[in-house]
């Protein structure tokens, strides 16, 4: 049980770094953005993991039910809006990638750097 | 039992993430990202975050895949292999940071611990006072639209700004667009030649739309609200555009209407806040909107959620059209 108590956080750590690896080691711009979205999802997972209360339920009041334990609504609110903001910023990033592709005819970082130098 | 299911899902999540990074076929990577989103949505649901799960499923698995595919259609499908020296260094850095973060987790409160610091601060107040001040069942909606209305206003403006940014970068397809119909015909027709997707899609669209409206207006009682509803309604229109072609979709919902939705939603949200000030209270304090403060709060939340929904639909559709319109040029 001790092991399971931290498993969510370990998965967060691994996902965070898998995403980070894609951002730093991959040279393809779309792959970098996919890595960024994994990184982002890992942070979402961290927040949502913290909202869970043992024996709790989703924070929606039910008429007639007394002494219900609710999970924490606050991280849910933060992440709910963050997901929508995330897709908007991701779209902005993709827009920049599309423009780069049109100007440089490539989405590989090293090719773009070469073009810039020559 | 549920925790074992959670562990299973989380392990699948890690495997999917590794597969996304490993594959050099970008098309496969995007499909895997959709699977990743669905898995993480299931996880959110297990962690009692029904609203977040709904949002993630609609946005991550639906709309984000469509956007990545539109971008991919303008870029090569395969990524080129990169040098190995770079990769070793990155692996080393990543491994070290992973170990540091894992080490740090030993100080975290155990999973589900009710005494964790997060649950001691304002959250109990929200849970206790929602029935008193706002009297709607969904605490998440109450916190989102009323208690923390400022945050949400800010997020709506971030979404708005991102939409404007994409418009600056890519621009909307020209109105009408029938000047060079011959070379645009392929992209403009969508899936009109394919019978089965068309029949099934047409059958689905009204139901998706109806579900979106339900999520919008039932958000105070169950999981849902403007963000989720906006994403779902946008998905219905995107499906329509994929089936019938972009031109037809822009004829049904012209770009002027979309721009009106984007700015109208943000204005509605801000306007409700300003109206509260005019009526003699502070910004976004809805209690003064009605003689009865609780009804005022409910009215304010309804209006604000409508504003959020409008902006999200408008921005997501504008982004989609900006990407899809790029193809035919």
What are the SSEs and their pairings?
The complex is a heterodimer of chains A (118) and B (329).
Chain A: H1 2-25, H2 29-51, H3 73-104, H4 109-117
Helix pairs in contact in A: 1-2, 2-3
Chain B: H1 2-22, H2 26-46, H3 50-72, H4 84-105, H5 123-134, H6 139-147, H7 149-170, H8 181-188, H9 195-217, H10 226-244, H11 246-252, H12 255-278, H13 293-327
Helix pairs in contact in B: 1-2, 2-3, 3-10, 3-13, 5-6, 6-7, 6-13, 7-12, 7-13, 9-10, 10-11, 10-13, 12-13
3D structure, described in words:
The complex is a heterodimer of chains A (118) and B (329). With 118 residues, chain A is mainly alpha-helical. Chain A is 75% helix and 0% strand. Chain A has four helices and no strands. In chain A, helix 1 runs antiparallel to helix 2 and helix 2 runs antiparallel to helix 3 (73-104). The longest helix of chain A is centred in the C-terminal third of the chain and has 32 residues, at 73-104. Chain A is elongated and about 70 Å long. Chain B has 329 residues and is mainly α. In chain B, helix 6 crosses helix 7 (149-170), helix 6 crosses helix 13 (293-327) and helix 10 (226-244) packs across helix 11 (246-252). The model of chain B is unreliable at 177-185 (pLDDT under 50). Chains A and B meet through helix 1, helix 2 and helix 3 of A and helix 1, helix 2, helix 3, helix 4 and helix 5 of B.
The shape of chain A is: elongated
Largest sheet of chain A: none
Q: What form of chain B results from the Cα inertia axes? A: globular
**What's the CATH topology label of chain A?**
Helix Hairpins
Report the β-strand fraction of chain B as a percent range.
under 5%
Q: Summarize the amount of helix of chain A as a percent range.
A: over 70%
- Structure classification of chain A: mainly alpha
Strand content of chain A: under 5%
Radius of gyration of chain A: 20 Å
Q: Could you give the count of β-strands of chain A?
A: 0
Which second-level CATH architecture of chain A applies? Orthogonal Bundle
Distance between the termini of chain B: 54 Å
Biggest interface and residues each: A-B, 86 and 104 residues
Number of domains of chain A: 1
N-to-C span of chain A:
60 Å
Overall structural class of chain B, as computed from helix and strand content, comes to mainly alpha
Provide the helix percentage of chain B: over 70%
CATH class of chain A: Mainly Alpha
**Overall average pLDDT of chain A:** 88
The poorly predicted ranges of chain A are none
